[in-house]
Fold this sequence. Notes:
- By secondary structure, the chain is of the alpha+beta class.
- It is built from ten helices and five strands; from the N terminus they run H-E-E-E-E-E-H-H-H-H-H-H-H-H-H.
- A five-stranded antiparallel sheet has the order 1-2-3-4-5, covered by helices on one side.
- Helix 4 (130-154) packs antiparallel against helix 8 (258-264).
- Residues 253-300 are annotated as: Disordered.
Amino acid sequence: xxxxxxxxxxxxxxxxxxxxxxxxxxxxxxxxxxxxxxxxxxxxxxxxxxxxxxxxxxxxxxxxxxxxxxxxxxxxxxxxxxxxxxxxxxxxxxxxxxxxxxxxxxxxxxxxxxxxxxxxxxxxxxxxxxxxxxxxxxxxxxxxxxxxxxxxxxxxxxxxxxxxxxxxxxxxxxxxxxxxxxxxxxxxxxxxxxxxxxxxxxxxxxxxxxxxxxxxxxxxxxxxxxxxxxxxxxxxxxxxxxxxxxxxxxxxxxxxxxxxxxxxxxxxxxxxxxxxxxxxxxxxxxxxxxxxxxxxxxxx
Length: 300
């Protein structure tokens, strides 16, 4: 069948990109309720027929109507990456001809767009509930694991030669966190599954850690159907992973070639991200004691 006869599946695009981590897709719009405010997100069309270039996010008040709105472009936030083998991937436009290629979880990079939407909506409405914020970050753990495997294959000396072990631990902890959040959020719908640079991955893990901490604090107060002890264990696991990776990054390593430099430097999508060692030094969270170092110690 001629692909141009198949309209862009806007509902699928919104579910995969999920600009509102706590939103529900209905029709061609994603909506979330935050306190008294409603937040909506919808794809924005270009002047070309059935061609979409970004997401328009609106904040609605029950008394004043729409109080703010903003546009977040796919190209500006690297949502579809820089895949030169896919039509229009570099322009950040979604249309009938490329939707089959672009609307795949492993080909999306929604993290930067989600972060921008989160920062924007936070100025007008309550933040997303922590259980949904944490779930949206789970995909970043898998992406970080794959990036670590890439670093391990291109430059085995990096991370004290333990990149593959770090990746294994990340996947193990991700499954444990998923099991803890499932009663609160339902099926895991995160679509963050594209490799990205190590500093960006560490920042994503810290955001997940903060969301889990907030959820544990709320569980203590409201006696919700979630085990705050288990959530704090996940936080300690993430702290230990973060400390282990940063310690290995800061340790001595053999200088590599151009492929190794590309693996550990900022990607084209996050060109402003500092080098791994610089990102570690600038981390707002101090390095905790390696209380969960046994996960890796047994693999040395």
